[in-house]
Amino acid sequence: MEYAVKKIPVCNSVEELLDFLKKYPTQKFCLYLAYKNKEDWDKSTSRTYMNQVMDSLLYLPVNIAKDDLASIREMLRIAEDNQNIVAINITQPHKSGPVLKERFKGEDLPSNIDTLVKDEGGNLRPYDINAPSFVGWYKDEVGSFKNKSVVLLGAGGVGEPIARRIAHEHPKELVLVDKEPKEKLQEELASYCNVRYTSKLDDTQNNIVFINCAGKEGADDSSAAAFLEKHENKGFVFVDLRPQLDIEIVGKAKQLGWKAFTGHGMNARNDYVLLRKIAERANAKPLEFSVFKELVAKAS
């Protein structure tokens, strides 16, 4: 496996994608659709570990700008026509984007689309994997959301589907913090729990679960750091969704007496669900989860 020991290149256009596919006519592919600068691509951990899981699979990053809808449509067409492409993992800014909604219009869709996997007929099918993986990881390894004041910093992107899942977990309060208006999401979730929207972090006081989704989307950590300092030594829970094991603000939170976690655990679960779906489609046996977690940890 050539790319098990070095990072696979990023395809920065549909033309580069086609050229790469031609070089490996017998490989199966999972495309990784995103839009990042070089620095952020260099930090990407999945480029490493997802190319160490199956000899027959290449996990190939495709970099397409948010507003380049024509290239996204063309990429989907290529994926549908090429039997070697078995799945597409989708991250920001393309999750539940307009081309995906256009492509699956009229179908029974998940509230969030972050993954496409081909069915037995070779047709791409949409899935929401991120949010269930986060909530499952949290409940298994951290605790319950019940009767907690859950503060979600960044309620767009990955934060929105996570908010929808948490609303069903009976929190005392769900606070959506985002610089962009989220009244529509607030109204949607109000029938499930006590939810409010604010444009900046405020004076939430008790039983706090503070989830930083904004950092994963490239936001500055200054407001999150100030909130952590404000609630020093109270034993509240902080989760930063970035997948790396070593994140500065998580270390700071621990020093301030928070029970702090990175998104590493959620990330491993998320991508293992994807791997199992790919293995099923490729008639292959996936790694055991314990082995997969070790690969993720080494890359993180």
Overview features:
alpha/beta, Rossmann fold, 2 domains, 6-stranded parallel sheet, 18% strand
Could you describe the 3D structure shown?
This protein has helices at residues 14-23, 38-43, 46-49, 69-81, 98-103, 130-141, 159-167, 183-189, 222-230, 248-255, 264-281, 289-299, and strands at 28-34, 57-63, 85-90, 115-118, 124-127, 149-153, 173-177, 195-198, 208-212, 237-240, 259-262. With 300 residues, the chain is of the alpha/beta class. The protein folds into two domains: 2-128 and 266-299, Leucine Dehydrogenase, chain A, domain 1 (Rossmann fold); 131-262, 3-Layer(aba) Sandwich (Rossmann fold).
> In which order are the strands of the major sheet placed?
8-7-6-9-10-11
Question: Helix amount, in percent?
Answer: 25-40%
CATH architecture of the largest domain: 3-Layer(aba) Sandwich
- What is the number of domains? 2
Q: Report strand %.
A: 15-25%
Taking all Cα atoms into account, the compactness measure Rg is 19 Å
CATH superfamily of the largest domain: Leucine Dehydrogenase, chain A, domain 1
Mean pLDDT: 92
What overall form do the CA principal axes indicate? globular
The biggest beta sheet is recorded as: 6 strands, parallel
